[in-house]
Amino acid sequence: MSVRVGSTRRNFVTVTGAAAALALAGNLPDLDFAKAGATGGVDRRDPFTLGVASGDPLPDAVVIWTRLAPEPLAPFGGMDRRPVEVQWQLAEDEQFHRVVRHGTTQARPESSHSVHVDVQGLRPWRHYWYRFRVGNQVSPVGRTRTAPAYDQSVPVMSMAFASCQAWWEGWYTAYADMARREHDVVFFLGDYIYEFGIDRGVRPHSNEDYVTRQTVTLDEYRNRYASYKMDPDLQAAHASAPWVVTVDDHEVVDNWADEAHPSAPPAQFLVRRANAFRAYWEHMPLRLAQLPNGPDMQLYRRIRYGRLAEFSVLDTRQYRSDQAYGDGSKFPGPDVLDPTRTLTGDEQERWLLDGWTASQARWNVLAQQNALARLDVKDGPELLVPMDTWDGYAASRDRVLGGAHQRKIRNLVSIGGDLHRSVASDLKLDFANPDSPTVGSEFVGTSISSGLDGMDLDPGGLTLLRENPHIKYGNFQRGYVSCTITPRQWISDYRVVDRVTVPNGTVSTRAKLLVEDGRPGIRVVAGDPAPHRAPARYGAGSPATT
Amino acid sequence: MNRSALVLIGTAVATVAVSSAGYSVSGRPSPVQVSTNPQQLSVVGLPCFPGNLTLTMTNTGTESLYADLTLSPTGPLQLSRELFSSWLPAVEPDQPVSAPVEVRVPRDTHSGQYSIDLEVDRTKVTVPVQVNPLPPKGPGSNVALGEQATASSTHGNFALCGAVDGDNDSEHWDTLTGWNDGTRAVFPDTYDVALAEPTTIDRVELYTLDSIRYPAAANGLRDWDVQVRSGGGAWTTVASVRGNTAGHVTSTFTPTQADAVRILALAGNGNTYSRIVELEVYDS
């Protein structure tokens, strides 16, 4: 990394506040960022072992993040329990010739010495580069990009989304590919960590003591995040683009619902949830608005990309009714249609629908955790659907999809995860009736690594394609989805890894799927969509090719 | 000079600083009470026989807070955790928040009195730890008790050492007193115990799951080989059990020198998991 550049000094001197900040940090302003003298608190050990990140871009602001952890798996990350001064810079160029914002903040022990700086006063739809310094240690450089101005016409944006990164089940080869493609923004849709203990895996150290225990206490969740974030490919993906993150279940515990989990009575579970949320916030590039208050965290929020796209990021865990019929895959009996049951909670549902009413965006995107589309997982006439996805909350789904339909929402697109498989679907007003209107399009992305290598189509994937005519594409390999969005069309490029159980897998495009402006539904532009699909038995289903 | 840098002078830069409120202010008594169960602990120098301590923090104050409880052992004590951090709600009645810690000592530890210092905020608690002499392993004693176990896999809800913890009662299955492998319906599984020293053995007693709720005929181990290893050589089968439906099976064999004993689990009743409540090995 080349960071010794002459203009840095002048920027330090001339930008208001720099002198004061440097004085606080005990530094002389005429030294380069990369070689200035030490501040207290951190010794020669590298404190930036968990990388850098940015997130939640606005037209004029972005959050930049790091955490000081010279020994990431030791208590307190190997830090003394006192605040440490951290300097940061944000520049218009990768060499930091043009530093436009900088400052000093404190990494505090009660936040695991994490740093979240909400850098404001930035210009819309611009790339920036950022870095941190503690003493004479300089962090890796992160690249980020602000969102466009709200009224800006955006000719094209690139976006990636990912989910489910079971560390011990695979190498993060998909993230190396994601980093190389340098998207404008990355959405992470849940299962950043897994809370349960494991005792073997495909990676070295998969049976170390710290991974064999389930996470319950705050120190255990912090340790789990650190163990995941040490991965260099994950760090590269964070450093390549701003991330917008939300949780699914495993950030807390498998299939939790609001205050309910079979492992503990609610009061005890809420302590665990509070611990999980605290560690989550500490390790994610989130704003102070998302800082948890005990077991509560305001995570659903809207991210806008000019007139091109508006992303409604959902939280489908914190406010949901408990799973119907004891969870698992069941026949969707009357409980799933019970209008008093909800996946989003009433307030979030109202926020979502009101937001759509006001939206001027070409693409209205639901960034959520699993699949909105119905997933009949049973061959034959019997209907079995997962109780943990929107299928188990059909009344809630009807209000969302029906609400979008009533409001004539322009180009509704859902992106999701959780399934550890790629599934692209037409979103139907009534999934039981293939002739009912298609009200939107859904891209569910596969896991980064959860589930080991997988295969092109497994028996479960074949069943999904056979039983669900609205599903236009399925794949059971690992990977992520890289999207190119223009006013005219949305292209989802399903990037899959041939093998994640070895460190040197290769990544390729399995399929390119298209949604056109004003024409809801998935069209396949490249790649064999469903090679094993049985001949259409439903009559009305249109061929999934162009 | 960089123009954009000048233009931006004076615009706001907000730093997200997390309030330290919730951490008690210096000088006041800490609202966090600390207790342990038991209040004092006895351990022996066996690798798979930890002393189990439950740590409890209780917030007696009026504001919820995050607390870090540090554990500092004296002498040779080895702890499974040196930190217990948690959110502690301020609720009425007070809500205790607990976490387990395992305490081990090396085999050659001198018996005597040691301690663990617990500290949260300015509250300090000392837990006395008595290290007892190793139990004598003479003729007729179980030489597998507390010795180092290894397994092909262990289910996340169970403890590797559970099958050498001295508790062979299947009714205690729910309290981590047995071993359960981690690969459902996949066989074989192995469960090994390394003996403290080469020993001539002639009998292995295996307790598989056999409780009122989970009878062995439906949940216990069905087929297995008893194997021994000596001097770094290969595993040798000394006894075989097939078609078992009982909870307790004794295998006797010609006295054999062994460094380690293995149960090679070949099949379970119900074809799900290998489950061993206790594995006992006796010298001749």
From TrEMBL, chain A:
<dbReference type="InterPro" id="IPR006311">
    <property type="entry name" value="TAT_signal"/>
</dbReference>
<feature type="domain" description="PhoD-like phosphatase metallophosphatase">
    <location>
        <begin position="159"/>
        <end position="493"/>
    </location>
</feature>
<dbReference type="InterPro" id="IPR038607">
    <property type="entry name" value="PhoD-like_sf"/>
</dbReference>
<feature type="domain" description="Phospholipase D N-terminal">
    <location>
        <begin position="50"/>
        <end position="146"/>
    </location>
</feature>
<dbReference type="Pfam" id="PF16655">
    <property type="entry name" value="PhoD_N"/>
</dbReference>
<protein>
    <submittedName>
        <fullName>Alkaline phosphatase D</fullName>
    </submittedName>
</protein>
<feature type="region of interest" description="Disordered">
    <location>
        <begin position="527"/>
        <end position="546"/>
    </location>
</feature>
<dbReference type="InterPro" id="IPR032093">
    <property type="entry name" value="PhoD_N"/>
</dbReference>
<dbReference type="InterPro" id="IPR052900">
    <property type="entry name" value="Phospholipid_Metab_Enz"/>
</dbReference>
<dbReference type="InterPro" id="IPR018946">
    <property type="entry name" value="PhoD-like_MPP"/>
</dbReference>
<dbReference type="Pfam" id="PF09423">
    <property type="entry name" value="PhoD"/>
</dbReference>
<dbReference type="InterPro" id="IPR029052">
    <property type="entry name" value="Metallo-depent_PP-like"/>
</dbReference>
Automatic annotation (TrEMBL), chain B:
<dbReference type="InterPro" id="IPR008979">
    <property type="entry name" value="Galactose-bd-like_sf"/>
</dbReference>
<feature type="domain" description="F5/8 type C">
    <location>
        <begin position="132"/>
        <end position="284"/>
    </location>
</feature>
<dbReference type="InterPro" id="IPR000421">
    <property type="entry name" value="FA58C"/>
</dbReference>
<dbReference type="Pfam" id="PF22633">
    <property type="entry name" value="F5_F8_type_C_2"/>
</dbReference>
<protein>
    <submittedName>
        <fullName>F5/8 type C domain-containing protein</fullName>
    </submittedName>
</protein>
